[in-house]
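User: Design a sequence. Structure:
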């Protein structure tokens, strides 16, 4: 998993509340187990018309927001089913941070496991960033210092220390386990030795 430390980029505003995972990546695109190739289907039903042509009115199809690295969204982002394809699609499109007042629990956890930073801020700040996003601004995020810089304003955000450690070091579930590789190898060697040197029963 790619580490997350600092990020500067265009922020796109999706102010709707309760944007669910089926809107983020519709169910017909869940057949793959690959983490790449899903970006073109991100928000498919909003980005394309029934004839599969780009919807020019959707924010992520417009300049400069089609290059967005950050989304500022309405409350309860990522609700619905527990598909891990949702953060995969965001990342493949180029979005590695989502800002909202709240997230669905499973989506929130899946973000950290896949290198996406979900930031929770109070409603006043989210609305302010959302309004500024309509101007096509860039914002900067510093995970180490847990802060956002938005047009010379600084906003602090909270994050669980363990999750912060995992993102900063690019550690998914497998990577976390491999941090203890020496201990695991030592245990396996001891276990193997006991099995092969077990005395025969009388």
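Assistant: Done.
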């Amino acid at each position: 998993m790619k580490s997350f430390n600092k990020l500067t980029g265009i922020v796109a505003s999706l102010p709707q509340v309760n944007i669910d995972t089926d809107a983020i990546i519709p169910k017909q695109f869940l057949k793959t187990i690959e983490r790449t190739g899903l970006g073109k289907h991100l928000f498919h039903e909003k980005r394309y018309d029934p004839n599969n042509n780009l919807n020019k009115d959707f924010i992520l199809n417009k300049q400069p927001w089609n290059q967005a690295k950050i989304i500022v969204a309405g409350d309860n982002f990522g609700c619905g089913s527990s598909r891990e394809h949702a953060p995969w699609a965001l990342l493949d499109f180029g979005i590695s941070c989502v800002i909202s007042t709240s997230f669905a629990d499973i989506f929130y956890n899946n973000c950290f496991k896949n290198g996406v930073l979900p930031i929770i801020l109070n409603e006043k700040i989210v609305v302010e960033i959302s309004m500024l996003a309509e101007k096509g601004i860039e914002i900067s995020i510093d995970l180490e210092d847990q802060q956002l810089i938005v047009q010379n304003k600084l906003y602090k955000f909270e994050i669980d220390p363990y999750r912060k450690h995992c993102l900063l070091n690019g550690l998914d579930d497998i990577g976390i386990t491999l941090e203890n590789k020496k201990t695991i190898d030592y245990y396996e060697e001891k276990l193997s030795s006991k099995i092969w040197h077990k005395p025969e029963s009388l």
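Residues 6-196 form a domain with the Aconitase; domain 4 fold (CATH 3.20.19.10). The longest helix spans residues 181-196.
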